[in-house]
Amino acid sequence: MFEWMAWTLPVAVFFSAIVLMLAGMTVWELRSPTVLRKGWLPMATTRGDRLFIGLLAAAYVNLAFVAISERMVGWFGLEAEPSIWISFVVSMLVLGLILRKG
Hints:
Elements: H1 9-31, H2 47-76, H3 84-101
């Protein structure tokens, strides 16, 4: 069923992190209901809103990295494409920033 998808370790870790975040946020919401908050995002958001926006941003960071990783070899004179772990770490930092300050 999933033969079409490249299930590498970084991809599996990324999706596992998303599942764990969703489960954790569900428990957190049940224990402590959220309130609207205005951060640096242009609207008042709840924790769930910020998680959704952060997950979208994380996905776009990963897609952008995959799109330019081949070109990075030429730009920076690398021997091989950079590791996808770089985009995973950057996307999780972006997600954390949006959850915390958004």
